[in-house]
Specification:
By secondary structure, the protein is mostly beta strands. The chain has two helices and 14 strands, in the order ββαβββββββαβββββ. The protein has a single domain, classed as Deoxyuridine triphosphatase (dUTPase) (Deoxyuridine 5'-Triphosphate Nucleotidohydrolase, Chain A). Strands 1, 2, 4, 9, 11 and 14 form a six-stranded antiparallel beta sheet that branches. A four-stranded antiparallel beta sheet has the order 3-8-12-10. A two-stranded antiparallel sheet has the order 5-6. The radius of gyration is 18 Å and the shape is globular.
Length: 215
Amino acid sequence: MPFFPAFKSNANGVVEMRLSDTDVLQRMAMGDIEIDPMPSAEGFGSFSVDVRLGHLFQTFQPCQTPFLDLSASTGHYMMSEKIMKTVEIGDEERFFLHPGEFALGMTLERIKLANHIVGWLDGRSSLARVGLMVHITAHSVDPGWNGNITFEFFNAGRLPLALKPGMRIGAISFELLSSPTSKPYGEKRGAKYHGQSGPLSSRIVRDSCSEKDDA
């Protein structure tokens, strides 16, 4: 009996279809999805591909700023990239995330998507069960994205968590849009994180001249 894919419509009436592992491999062969380095066979799930932890992190620096004004683009209390610092961890080292702490991390893999494919980043259930959150809000990867993907780490548990570069940290799945977007990420005005190869701190101060483009 022939197989007919099950389509579903979201609240906006847009047709969506999640890709199986077979479809992901086909799309990779076609060049619609690029993952570098190429995942091993064990890295493919039934509809997702494992992503691993990179070597770079960003953490808040000790500072005397009493608060951040997230609506401000000027002034003493606006978000500044100087508030965070980059930490690089070696292959056999560990990054320690303490209870209640937040940090940015990065996938080891670079991901590139065609203009009609969106990605979805999810954490591992086994890591969530010890309190590790890998994304706070931004788990979608825009069509037209090209770069490494940022993790928004938060330790909601009671013990420090040691994170090692190269460990399996999450998985990405892919979905077809009903048609190619007219606003691929790399062509958006003011795409703040396009082509990133390391975790970048918030660039919310650029929102006044850019469209929604978090990834």
